[in-house]
Predict the structure.
Amino acid sequence: MDKARNRQQTCDQMRNGKDKDTYVKRVGRRIAEERKRQGLSQQQLAHRMDVSEHLISRWETGNQMPSRSSLQALEQALEVPAEHFLRNHLP
């Protein structure tokens, strides 16, 4: 429960803060890096998650922040905890 609460607090703080654009781009960059590390195309990841390739692109380019449910789907599709994408201590 604490992890989920911390994750949500981090999301809320960054969504509402002045660093929102930078944070969203970092999250997107981490999603793209992990997808590529696993040798997946955007199309393959989209298929695993049952979302559009366009949506994957929007996340990866920092044009849209994944929703809570999308982060959970990313966790399952890439077998990586959402904190991997959300942590804010790396550039």
Notes: Helices lie at 2-16, 20-37, 42-49, 53-60, 68-78, 83-86. The two ends are 27 Å apart (CA to CA).
